[in-house]
Design a protein that fits this description.
Layout: E1 2-6, H1 11-22, E2 26-33, E3 42-43, E4 46-47, H2 51-64, E5 68-72, H3 74-90, H4 97-116, E6 121-123, E7 128-131, E8 134-137, H5 146-149, H6 154-157, E9 160-161, H7 169-178, H8 200-208, E10 213-217, E11 223-227, E12 254-259, E13 264-268, E14 275-285, E15 295-300, E16 307-315, E17 318-327, E18 335-340, E19 347-358
Parallel strand pairs: 1-2, 1-6, 2-5, 6-9, 10-13
Antiparallel strand pairs: 3-4, 7-8, 10-11, 12-13, 14-17, 14-19, 15-16, 15-18, 16-17, 18-19
Helix pairs in contact: 1-2, 1-7, 3-4
EC number: 2.8.1.13
Keywords: ATP-binding, Cytoplasm, Disulfide bond, Nucleotide-binding, RNA-binding, Transferase, tRNA processing, tRNA-binding
Catalytic activity: S-sulfanyl-L-cysteinyl-[protein] + uridine(34) in tRNA + AH2 + ATP = 2-thiouridine(34) in tRNA + L-cysteinyl-[protein] + A + AMP + diphosphate + H(+)
Length: about 375
């Protein structure tokens, strides 16, 4: 096959490209220029898309003997990932920009251009397994990225390749060293790639501005503090709340609800964070079709979070997830990813963007989608 290898400049994508070459494919490497200021986005293990990364990707392509190009997707990345990230926080949500990048950039804009140029598939260095069109968790549980790939449709998965998902990360580094790739020991990127300082609140504040509001107690309704914008908070947050002290019982408070319309942040106890029901929008079923009824599964609501047994059922274009045991710190804007446990690597059933939660076991969705009920 003629395949396009997305090469970020890191070790995983370099080895993915190398494995595609070894498998006999006709491989072309491409580096995505996603920053309008590419010299400023790498600080050690933070950031990406710097000139250093583009150079590392080019050198890896040279060693592999494959053609290499740089494609400028900076405007598309800003519109579909960065602007979406900012807007979501302004709306009181907690988005995942890596998931959005996969959905809008790597497997949409990039893939569409690749197919138009006659490529059969897109190769990336994501840690996930793909067998007969079925997306599964990677062998290396600590590096598994199936969560951020769960937004891909059946059509996109049919033309994707994840060559490193069947191998633990240390072995990938050893393989890169054997191939003579200079990125063999390059640090992994951490945090949000377009915020190299790691200061998300400062990044958002510079773009959203000051939108003052109040921090109120969930039980008494008493105003405990003032804040400069709901973008500085997420459900489940404990630190940086600007409170004068712990609750009357001496226990810490957590953010339990965010109302962007009134700019109100509600805080309460750890028990107030428990969620038993989740509703989701923008649902993707990776098989290409929604199930006819409820399905037993496990659900994950954070990229590196734990899972809970659940039952998921389509509801129009959305879905309702009923949990067998409660999850905490579930925020609107996060992805709810459904898995079916399987000895060969858990199978991804689908995903949706969390739109509301409820603390009622059987119950209704929270009347206010920005809050988590506790009764």
């Amino acid at each position: 096959m003629r395949v396009l290898a997305a090469m970020s400049g890191g070790v995983d994508s370099a080895v993915a490209a190398a494995r595609a070459v070894a498998a006999g494919h006709d491989v072309v490497g491409v580096h995505l220029a996603l920053s309008t200021a590419p010299g400023a986005l790498r600080t050690g293990s933070r950031g990406c898309c710097s000139r250093e990364d583009a150079g590392d990707a080019r050198r890896a392509a040279d060693i592999l003997g494959i053609p290499f190009y740089v494609w400028d997707f900076a405007d598309k990345f800003k519109e579909d990932v960065i602007d979406d990230f900012v807007a979501s926080y302004a709306a009181g949500e907690t988005p995942n920009p890596c998931l959005r990048c996969n959905e809008k950039i790597k497997f949409s804009a990039l893939a569409e251009r690749a197919y138009a140029l006659g490529f059969d598939a897109v190769v990336t260095g994501h840690y996930a397994q793909l067998r007969d069109g079925v997306l599964r968790r990677a062998v290396d549980a600590e590096k598994d990225q199936s969560y951020v790939l769960a937004v891909l449709t059946a059509e996109q998965l049919a033309r994707a390749m994840f060559p490193v998902g069947d191998t633990p990360k240390p072995e990938i580094r050893n393989e890169a060293a054997r191939l003579g790739l200079s990125v063999a020991n390059k640090p992994d990127s951490h945090d949000i790639c377009f915020i190299p300082t790691g200061n998300t609140q400062a990044f958002l504040g510079a773009r959203i501005g000051v939108r003052p509001g109040k921090v109120v107690d969930s039980e008494s309704g008493a105003v405990l503090a003032e804040h400069e914008g709901v973008h500085g908070f997420t459900v489940g947050q404990r630190k940086g709340l600007g409170l004068p002290g712990p609750a009357a019982d001496g226990k810490p408070r957590y953010v339990t609800g965010i109302d962007p319309e009134t700019s109100t942040v509600t805080v309460g106890s750890a028990a107030d964070l428990e969620v038993w029901t989740i509703t989701a929008r923008d649902v993707i079923w990776t098989s290409g079709a929604a199930p006819e009824g409820a399905v037993d599964c496990v659900v994950q609501v954070r990229a590196h979070g734990g899972t809970a047994a659940a039952t998921a059922e389509p509801e129009g274009s959305g879905m309702r997830i009923t949990l067998a045991s409660p999850l905490t710190g579930v925020a609107r804007g996060q992805a709810a990813v459904l898995y079916r446990e399987d000895p060969a690597g858990d199978i991804v059933l689908g995903s949706g963007t969390i739109a509301g939660t409820s603390a009622q076991r059987s119950g209704r969705v929270a009347a206010h989608a920005g809050s988590t009920e506790s009764q």
